[in-house]
Amino acid sequence: MRARVFVTLKTGVLDPQGKAIGHALEGLGFRGVGEVRQGKLIEVELSETDEARARASVKEMCEKLLANTVIEKYEIELRP
Amino acid sequence: MKSAVIVFPASNCDRDAATALESLTGHKTEMVWHQDTDLPNVDLVVLPGGFSYGDYLRSGAMAGQSAIMRAVKAHAEKGGAVLGICNGFQVLTESHLLPGALMKNAGLKFVCRPVTLEVSETQSAFTRFYENGQKVVFPVAHGDGNYFADPETLDRLEGEGRIAFRYAEGDNPNGSVRNIAGILNATRNVLGLMPHPERVVDPLLGGTDGIPMFKSLIEALS
Prior knowledge:
The structure holds two protein chains of two kinds.
Chain A: E1 2-9, H1 16-27, E2 39-45, H2 51-66, E3 72-79
Antiparallel strand pairs in A: 1-2, 1-3
Chain B: E1 3-7, H1 14-25, E2 30-33, E3 44-47, H2 67-77, E4 81-85, H3 87-94, E5 101-103, E6 111-119, E7 135-142, E8 146-148, H4 151-159, E9 163-167, E10 180-184, E11 190-193, H5 211-221
Parallel strand pairs in B: 1-2, 1-3, 3-4, 4-11
Antiparallel strand pairs in B: 5-8, 6-7, 6-9, 9-10, 10-11
């Protein structure tokens, strides 16, 4: 099973990189660009085949290491 | 006062810290590798500046999980002193020895220059040789020094007198909330700060404002 973990800054936490990307998009002439937020994608290969157990294990990985929950939130996507 | 400096892969201020400690204490400082599981019998543990693990994932995130950090946590829980400088501060927040987080500088740039700080708390083993409100100049050299915590945590830090150093008004190099440059834990035996006191202990290197911190520690811990 494969897990994709999306780590992004929590709402309200300033994201200066996202802002800089937004300005660059405007500079390139893209119109109608609202707020831009940057995050990370982490892919993890798992030997676990049970979805519930895999999700629980990846959640623990997120809480312990993959995300800093003071400033970041995470979403987990599992694929067989 | 006996001291140890933890060496992570890509620590780069470990020897500066050891030199500062050895010249001011007159005792040899132990260098402890991050994969070691035990600390020598010391009063002070320093987590030095640098770019541990190449800042992979987040600054200080990997170092915060390294084997030696279990021993550092145990040392802190027993009341032992821990000083985290720059990357060491990031390691302390990542390992939850201090609250909050250090994010990318608001201006996005790596900032490397002397900054003026205000000593805002002298009731600690780290700061007793400073005056309250004293202005000191320490260098900063970081890309991720923007301190962040939720408002309740910030109010608690302020209420408990745990903000040891603030950037002087108008000299905040990274956007840190409430100008926070360094904080203490609840039991006041752990200090993390982004600026580098160990780089200002010799007039030849541009300043001596860091000396009172080491003298405070020597008096408190000897």
